[in-house]
Write a structure and sequence with these properties.
Distance between the termini: 50 Å
Strand order of the largest sheet: 1-2
CATH class: Mainly Alpha
Number of domains: 1
Largest sheet: 2 strands, antiparallel
Structural class: mainly alpha
Number of helices: 13
Strand content: under 5%
Number of strands: 2
Radius of gyration: 20 Å
CATH superfamily: Formate dehydrogenase/DMSO reductase domain
Order of helices and strands: HHHHHHHHHHHHEEH
Length: 341
């Protein structure tokens, strides 16, 4: 394995971390959207994510492009094998976008309620689908000698993957509720505190259950941990960060709780990467057929050119993302002219 292949394995992980942390909270806000009472509270939640949600999704598009360029065999296998699931993801992401833009176009309570339901349901379904997809990657998928997926859509709906999907739902529900606490005020902020409290405990409990099930059933994910004992610090760090976010939230330190939640999501991706490396797509029941950073990558010239672009592009994305969040910091006030939704 070359240094460039390792670098791109890590960069791909960084892009997925960025997407999970940033788009994760606005998916979480969508999950809770129907829990808001009255049009003003729902408008507040929509305006909390309105200026940033489309920028957050840049990270997913960038990750998909990086996967296509750096590891084309993985892109081909995953996008063909998970075709129906990915089309469902695309459908619900489009539904979220349309609901955000269409909701306030007609002054009708029924019209708004319908788009509110679409926004909330599509957010929850998107989280579940992303989690189930990750669960299948962790478990391994049936591949042939050519690296082609040999299962079906129903193969993906296995108990382990569904468990990871539910864990992802709890994780981003917690993350989103903390964001509503930061951006909301009054009764909405109080309600969001209750959401975050319940989701935080669910997140912690489900992470412990998923960790135990993984240790018992997913032997291949423990190989690197047995060889490099220091890696066991990562799951401990995840537990500390989740528990820390819960404690900070209970103390009323919303910003720090949100930061701790963000770091816990990043640490979980570190946990995933450490278990998978150097595999990108483990082959179920046939480890020798797995797609790895070594056998599924583009040639070094391609990786070199992509790395130069990434060295300029990623700081640019981080820079303008930071500026947008700085520009829209503070509580949402829907009485202002800048409140669009």
């Amino acid at each position: 394995m070359t240094a460039l292949q390792v670098i791109w394995f890590l960069l791909l992980g960084l892009l997925f971390v960025g997407y999970a942390v940033l788009d994760g909270f606005d998916l979480g806000v969508g999950f809770w959207h129907l829990g808001a009472r009255g049009d003003d509270e729902r408008r507040t939640m929509l305006n909390a994510v309105g200026p940033v949600w489309d920028g957050n999704e840049v990270w997913l598009l960038t990750a998909g492009g990086a996967l296509f360029g750096a590891f084309p065999a993985v892109y081909a296998s995953v996008f063909s094998g998970f075709y129906l699931a990915l089309m469902l993801v695309l459908l619900v992401l489009m539904a979220r976008a349309v609901s955000l833009e269409f909701r306030s176009q007609v002054e009708s309570p029924r019209w708004r309620s319908a788009w509110d339901a679409i926004f909330s349901v599509s957010s929850a379904v998107a989280i579940l689908l992303f989690g189930v997809a990750l669960g299948n990657i962790l478990r391994g998928v049936p591949l042939n000698a050519s690296g082609d997926f040999t299962g079906s859509f129903w193969t993906l709906l296995n108990p382990y993957a569904l468990m990871i999907g539910v864990l992802g739902l709890a994780m981003l529900a917690f993350h989103g509720a903390l964001y509503v606490v930061i951006k909301g005020s009054g009764d909405l902020e109080g309600r969001a505190r209750g959401w975050a409290r319940a989701a935080g405990y669910a997140y912690l409990a489900l992470f412990l259950v998923a960790s135990l099930v993984t240790i018992v059933t997913q032997e291949h994910l423990l190989e690197n941990y047995r060889e490099v004992a220091v890696l066991w610090a990562i799951p401990v760090l995840v537990l500390v960060l989740i528990a820390g976010a819960i404690v900070l939230h209970r103390r009323g330190e919303s910003g720090r709780a949100f930061l701790s939640s963000s770091l816990s999501i990043a640490a979980i991706w570190g946990l995933v990467g450490a278990g998978l490396f150097p595999r990108l797509v483990p082959a179920l029941g046939a480890p020798e057929l797995s797609l790895t950073a070594a056998n599924a990558s583009s040639g070094d010239p391609t990786l070199q050119v992509m790395l130069v672009i990434a060295l300029f592009g990623i700081p640019l994305v981080i820079g303008y993302t930071g500026w947008v969040y700085w520009a829209f910091k503070g509580k949402v006030d829907i009485s202002q002219e800048s409140a669009h939704y």
